[in-house]
Every structure is written in structure tokens, then in C-alpha cells.
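Input chain follows. Return C-alpha cells only.
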Amino acid sequence: MNIDFILNGEDVSMKAEPLERLSELLRERFGLSSLLNDCLEGICGKCVVFLDGRLVNACLVPAFKARGSEIISYEGFKSTDSHETIAKAFRDSGTFLCGFCDPAVMMAAGSLLDSGKRPNDEDIMETMSSVYCRCATPTATL
């Protein structure tokens, strides 16, 4: 089936297989290397994207659900002011990101920053815990 959507600000059209995951479509067909298909169960959080403004695990989303949606991957997010604000905050606080998980960690932090509300420690822990990384623990981001 053909699906049309917006990816990182560009109108795109792609043929998707009925059981294809959004994470597979984005990584394999669009070459988005920031999406890692590690667990394919929504546990690791390394395949997160913004889907119509919500942070989602792309491995849990059937590709056909992207029809008519706007998707922002890390490749698109890193050109935003939010990304620069978060990167600066991590640098200034001495928070180390390993490079393997940092796209997902940055996207999770971006969801907090762009939420329009002031997150408390519980919100931060819940959101940052959605990305499994052995190097950047959620408490380090607090």
C-alpha cells in the first residue's frame, strides 16, 4: 500500500508492506540511522520519533499508521532550537551521552522541553527511563 506523510519537513510517499513496522520503513528505506531496531518490543526506546508531535516507539507503530502524519526523526530534530538547548544543557551539566543512545535520549528530553509544561522530577524520570541506556542513567539527567 502507498502511504503519504511528512518526514522531517518533506512530503514523502512510500510503498509499505502490510506488516512492516514504521521503524523498519524509516531506517531501511529512508536511511535514518538514528533509529535502532534493537528490541522491536518498545522496551529499549532507541527507535523513538515524534509522530504528530507525540514521542512514540516506531517499532510499535505499523507503517501504514503514518499515512497523513508528520514524523520527525532525530535527523530532523537535531536542526531545531530545542536540540541545541538540550545539547548545551547536557554539556554544561557534564552529562555524558555514549553516542549509541544519544539520539533517543535527546528526543526524549525534547519531548519534555516541547511539552509546553514545566516537568517535575517524576515526569523527567518517567520520560528519560523510556530509553534504555547503560551510560546515561535517568538520574544523571536530573
